[in-house]
Amino acid sequence: MKKTIKYFLNKRKLFIGVSLGITLLFTLVNVSNRVYYYEMPTGKTPFDMPFGFLYVFGVIFSSFIPVMEFKFKTNKIMVDQAYSLPVKREKYYLAKYVVGLIETLLPLVVCGSVSLLYVMCSKHIYNLWYVLPYLLMLLLITAGVYSIFVFFFIKGNTVFDGIVNMFFISCFLMALASAIDTYVNVSKVLRTA
Hints:
Elements lengths: L1 H10 L1 H19 L5 E4 L2 E4 L6 H18 L5 H8 L5 H33 L9 H23 L5 H25 L2 H7 L1
Helix pairs in contact: 1-5, 2-5, 3-5, 3-6, 5-6, 6-7
């Protein structure tokens, strides 16, 4: 299993490097030359933390990488080649899943760390103790969305079917979240807890 994961990671190191480079470039552009608070007559007021863009990266990677990693399943020749390897199907799929999860989460971890270090080295008035739970929740949510998308993508017979499945499950999850937000006032529950 470790050899299979290592093999797939070796195969995907160019993609990992390019995606990491692009996300790091966007991160540096987002956090550099930025003032994190503004002066008011009553005192300093903070701007929003520069971590919101990480959710965008999480959504893009958790939507795009399942298609890239599991599109082999929709091509008969690639499936025959994959199943002819001396690796069980379960281990093969699990290795592809783990490699895709690494490809999804690694840029978020690196960009979140760079953003945090940049904010810590600049003048700010934030309480940075809340950044760690924020980043951990971001990683958990991204891993959950990635896992759901992988499950529903591999249920399709073609790439188009898989993408349609991913689209419908994302619509269902958004409708569910909206219904929960509508019928349960989450902010009121959190304030009273």
